[in-house]
Amino acid sequence: MAVFEVKQGSSPVILAFPHTxxxxxxxxxxRLNDNGRLLADADWHIHDLYAGLLANATTVRATFHRYVIxxxxxxxxxxxxxxxxxxxxxxxxxFDGVPIWKDGEEPTEADIAARLADxxxxxxxxxxxEIERVKAIHGVAVLYDCHSIRSDIPFLFEGILPDFNxxxxxxxxxxxxxxxxxxxxxxxxNGYTSxxxxxxxxxxxxxxxxxPETGVHxxxxxxxxxxxxxxxxxxxxxxxxxxxxxxxxxxTILQRIEETALGLTH
Length: 266
Fold this sequence. Notes:
Elements: E1 4-7, E2 13-17, H1 26-29, H2 46-50, E3 58-62, H3 109-138, E4 141-149, E5 164-167, H4 176-187, E6 194-196, H5 204-209, E7 216-224, H6 240-264
Parallel strand pairs: 2-3, 2-4, 4-7, 5-6
Antiparallel strand pairs: 1-3, 5-7
């Protein structure tokens, strides 16, 4: 299987999709239990939601499911949110804390090392190559990391998640003007709620690549799945009417980020 898909563009904006993949090699799939085989924790249809919103944007998409290995986790296994429930580099449970592997079939340290080499590393090599290519063109690159999650997951957070969850690790991963470009649109999105650096402050991808002092900026957008799915449960069907209401706001966010990024180079 191809580990990633890349579509090159000329914009300073790169859209990354680490969690939309649903492919699992047969030898790994057979080790999942019935719950794991539901693949419930994918970012369902997020690459479809963003399709065509910024015509010249580069896209880098992982094709493998996060149960193989999570492309948005530290390869050293360090927790993104110490002291809080989360899932690891190779998850042992789903987002509800329920085991996903058959008894005795849980991934070993050797399995994890192999998956780092075969999946995680190639995806990030592709992403880094595009960041460097885009930065060489513009002198600046903006990594916009695209995510979604169920709006109600008691195991991970209390209450109902806002619709737009913007993460910049407390403002560390991008210029404040790029952060504000996203925040301003989200705050004024009619009928939607939003938060900056709430429960989701940006995953490993955002924190690893976002180094504004070098001209590489990163921002994570975690959307509540209720904004674009018919239901937040299997079969996770795409709701076109919901999506078409949301897409103009996402388009404006991307356009303003692009304009802001180009302004930083002048």
